[in-house]
Amino acid sequence: MQYRSKLFSTRDAYDTEGTQELFIKAMQENCRFQYKGCPEYRRILDGMGFSPDDLTDEEALTKLPFLPTLVFKKHKLCSMPESRMAVRATSSGTSGHSSEIGFTVSDLWAGLKMVLRVSKLRRLVSIVPCHYIVFGYKPHKSNKTAVTKTALGATMFTPALSRTFALIYKNGKYSPDLEGVMRAVVRRSKSRFPVRFMGFPSYTYFLMKLMDEKGIRVTLPKGSKIMLGGGWKQFYAEQVDKTVFYELAQRVLGVTDDNIVEFFGAVEHPVLYCDCKNHRFHVPAYSRVIIRDPETMQPLPLGSEGLVNLLTPMVTASPILSVMTDDIGILRDGSECGCGLTSPTLEILGRIGMRDIKTCAAGAAEILKEAQL
Predict the structure, then answer these.
(1) Please, are residues 31 and 54 in contact by the beta-carbon 8 Å criterion?
(2) Alpha carbon distances (Å) from 301 to 322, 324, 332, 333
(3) What CA–CA distance (Å, rounded) separates 311 from 300?
(4) Are residues 242 and 140 in the same domain?
(5) Does 369 map to a domain?
(6) For residues 9 and 14, what is the distance between their CA atoms, to the nearest angstrom?
(7) Tens digit of pLDDT for each residue in 188-220?
(8) What's the rounded Cα separation, in Å, for the pair 243 and 250?
(9) Is 25 part of a structural domain of the chain?
(10) What is the pLDDT of residue 89?
């Protein structure tokens, strides 16, 4: 994977224009590997009349058959024996099914280099120790979800003095402990070391709202941050506007919006998207985004709403080069953001049920069905 290695060694994490040729070569390199190692993926490409040799230019990226995330939720697709995988991570499974994606040591190494470069955008890596309040699952041997591993990994951006978790495993299930977290926040606010929140925006918001209702106000130490990731999941109906969230954070925690950082990603597309100072997701050099018409599946121009198709050559253990999410989004000209980055910006608007995605998106699932997987 020489081209992937070069791509993930790129110093400028947002040089999508300068890495375009390298990205295409890395995608072709990975596609050939998946085609050879995963019979199901080879059957999909053959069934759609696509060869790895066709990946020669930017237009070919739009023609590479994509796999809906639903395929990974119903089928375990691997390009090597599980014994060669260092880690297997699953999605949260809020829809009733979970994807399971494998990662080799080289996949993880590429991911580590990516995370370190992307996180520099918001100066997340520091030698200053922090107390962590994790609005996510406390690790448990039965929990293999990627969101749990990611949240725990984010507590390693700095030396961790303590970790307090909002979701505790007890009697065979996870339960929120917002009262316990609130006490920890009040206690840590008196520390001379920064406090970092990490995890689901929903539980972060619920905690801040609870504090506001109880009239509890604290000022977290200088350098404290709120890091959000994992989406609102089953609390999508309770999602609030970012400005409401930011105002509440400043009112009850004393954290200004420039110290609030949001992440975007998925187990089926493990590339880290970190918002810029203007809170927009610029597409990093390690991935590409195609917005597609929900009916025709054809690529749409900048500024158009459509389904979000994510591409990356990062992973070799599983064929996730091009995945179709159930997210509706818009890709915009990044130079208009004003933050200094010029790579395109991705805005997620909402979700559409996978059953509503027509034509080509169902093609992969049909081929797998015919293969009796």
Answers:
(1) no
(2) 18, 17, 9, 10
(3) 16
(4) yes
(5) no
(6) 12
(7) 999 999 999 998 888 899 999 999 999 999 999
(8) 11
(9) yes
(10) 78
Dist CA 170 CA 136 (whole Å): 14
| pLDDT tens per residue across span 31-70 | 999 999 999 999 999 999 999 999 999 999 999 999 998 8
Please name which of 198, 246, 247 lies closest in space to residue 226, comparing C-alpha atoms: 198
3-state secondary structure of 267: coil
Report DSSP letters for 142-159, one per residue.
Answer: T--BHHHHHHHHHTTSS-
The whole-angstrom separation of Cα 250 and Cα 217 is: 10
Domain count, the chain: 2
SS3 (DSSP) at 38: coil
Q: Calculate Rg over the CA atoms of the chain.
A: 21
Residue 165, domain CATH: 3.40.50
Residue 195, token pair as written in the block: 């406090």
How many whole angstroms separate alpha carbon 108 and alpha carbon 269? Answer: 13
Residue 57 lies in a domain: yes
* Token representation of residue 293: 């018409």
Tell me the C-alpha distance between 358 and 354, whole Å.
Answer: 9
Question: Around Cβ 216, how many Cβ atoms within 10 Å?
Answer: 15
Does the CA dihedral 227-115-85-265 come out positive or negative?
positive
CATH of the domain at 48: 3.40.50.12780
b/e per residue 84-102 (b: at least 16 CB within 10 A) = ebebbbbbbeeeeebbbbb
- Which of the four pLDDT bands, split at 50, 70 and 90, describes residue 71? confident
Distance (Å, whole) CA 226 – CA 245: 11
> Containing domain of residue 226, as a range?
122-264
Length of the chain: 373
When pLDDT is cut at 50, 70 and 90, the band that residue 364 belongs to is very low
The Cα–Cα gap between 50 and 183 comes to: 57
What is the three-class DSSP state of 4?
Answer: helix
Answer yes or no: is pLDDT of 136 > 90: no
Torsion of CA 159, 160, 161, 166, to 10 degrees: 170
Nearest residue to 174 via CA among 132, 199, 203, 138:
138
